[in-house]
Amino acid sequence: MGGGGSAMSDCPTLGYHKIRGLAAAPRMMFFYKGQQFKNKAYANDMKEAWHGGEKPVLKQQNSLINLPYLQDGDVLVTQSNSVLLYLGKTLGIDKDDCWVHNHQVIDQTMDLRNDLMKIVYPFGAVKTPEQLPEGFKGHLEGSGTTNFTKLEGFCKGPYMCGAAPQSGDFHVFEMLDQHLVMVAELGLTFDTASFPKLMALHAKMKAEPSLAKYFDHAMYKSYPFNNALFTTFKGPGYDGNYDPVTEVVTM
């Protein structure tokens, strides 16, 4: 295993939709530590390949099974936050003395993410892409600002727990990145000056040499942000290809 971890198999499998979504952070963590992995990305084959295929099989091993999941040898982990924490431990990213602080970061960032999902999928008032700018503006002025303010106050700098990134930082980065891209694409404004520590975290992670291959990979550049079959926002890099992918990603 690359990166100095202690208990990971040579090529674990990360299963998720063919989107950035909740798998962006764990994918980043693999790149950050130079750990090869199998990227199993379900797309327009979801009904057959996942619901009618692999999910019932994996459910026999873990009754909680959902997307994302991580298969690491005999260990099968599901639930997004658990996947982050498992990778943080096995890849040697998370420090024991940061555990409680980092766990709170992950939970708070998930609150932010869940609020964003209410407007990028047609579950609530925003039903169409045409309605998205106004809906996203309301999100930014409301729960978006509330959650970013909490995270800003909780950030020790330059990363959330101090000098080195923990598993939560990768999720914070993804949420910052998605919000900043949406602001630009929808022609809105956002008071980034109110969040200097978060913006510094975003810039520092974007400049991290070990993540250069990730930022140049299709999973960052051209995967849709959200499920391309249903979302009101796919992202500017989405190339229209929503065919499934199974690939071994080497570093």
UniProtKB/TrEMBL annotation:
Q: What GO biological process terms does the UniProt entry carry, in alphabetical order?
A: glutathione metabolic process
What the entry lists under PROSITE patterns is as follows: GST_CTER, GST_NTER
Q: What class of enzyme is it?
A: transferase
The GST N-terminal domain sits at: 10-95
Give a short account of what the protein does. Conjugation of reduced glutathione to a wide number of exogenous and endogenous hydrophobic electrophiles.
| Name this polypeptide is given | glutathione transferase
Q: Which GO terms describe its molecular function?
A: glutathione transferase activity
SUPFAM superfamilies from the UniProt entry: GST C-terminal domain-like (SSF47616), Thioredoxin-like (SSF52833)
